[in-house]
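I hope you will forgive my troubling you with a question about protein structure. The matter concerns a single protein, recorded as an amino acid sequence and a row of backbone structure tokens. Please examine both parts with care and let me know of anything in them that strikes you as inconsistent. Thank you for your consideration; the sequence and its tokens are set out here:
***
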Amino acid sequence: MGSKLRGIHTPHRKDTKNSPVIRMDIPSTVTIPMSMHIGKPATPTVKVGDLVKVGTKIGEANGYVSSPIYSSVSGKVAKIGEYLMLSGGTVPSVIIESDGEMAVDESVTPPSVNNKDEFIDAVKNSGIVGLGGAGFPTYVKLNVDPEKIDYLIINGAECEPYVTSDTVTMLTREDDMALALETMQRCLGIKNVIIGIENNNKKAAVNMQKMAENIKDLSVKVQVLPSVYPQGGEKVLVYHTTGRKIGADKLPIDVGCIVINCTTVAAIGAYLRTGMPLVEKCVTVEGGCVAKPQNVIAPIGASLKEVFDCCGGLTEQPAKLVYGGPMMGITVQNTGYSVIKNTNAVLALTTKEAKLPKTTACIRCGTCVNTCPFGLAPVSIAEAYDKKDANLLSDLAVLSCMECGCCSFVCPANRPLVQINKLSKQFVKDEAKKEANK
């Protein structure tokens, strides 16, 4: 990553950031998968016929890198089924028939947090994972030697087009964010906080500045950044806020930084205040097929159909349904999928919005190279992948690719470069496994 600010200027389309947030009606059933995080799936702790309440634990973390899962409604467990994940694999799921009461489990009480161990245990028990899309268990990220932390960087750089759910957090949940930051200062010794926000989000920046000024004994700096995609990428954000570069095989903590999404911070504060684990999510519902695009607070496990219905339904058959934003989101086949912990947006795109242009031959212009945030050469990676040359792909640092999609977005030949990068990364990993097993 050089000194030049690389990336692209995408259409923002942040039409929902000033719209009222609505809470969807209680769904008749929820389907809650046991894997909504990076790491091992949770193990179901309930059986068919069990009665549950909001906040009842229904899945136990299975190993260190895992996360517990809780019921988002009160009612009866109807089925322990299989859930088809976006990756194509299946995991157990707990299907609950709601009784419509939303009764809260008696175990839901604010935790007592006075030191690092109690704080880490609280974050683990909350079921909170990275809510900006990655889904990495938050307690694992925070469970490091405090002496290694120079900066806690709060990611408010919501750079994907359409998506505004993080903006809603920064405009409406500043009290929960402040409580989480004050507790991290007290229990983890955090001294310096940087909140990174793009310059097209002025209201959020002003609100975060007001919050920062009211937090005592902690340096909180609101840093307004150019609205260049992918500003919200973890390594990109660290570089543009601190000037520190993170190597291809390194993490932010290796350069003294921890990066946490702003909605994740708010969720920690809400758990400290109420004791209610993560059971709902604010989701941006957008796209040309949505009757009334807006941000919706949905119970985890609610179907996409129910989420669209609370926005007036779909005005036409979508040409494409997308989990997440249009740059890094994943296409799904139907509206039967569930809202999960790290769902920040769902898009229902029209034919015009979703139509892919015709691919032509590479013209060797180098635009993909000049645009890549990490200075990779997607055109060369594509050639190496065609040759199935794993060594060359490794030399081209393909595993450093963050799959942001900038290369595909700017390619005048409309080549699927980011898709080729994804395939190349998997190919290199598969070849390395073959070598290791010889």
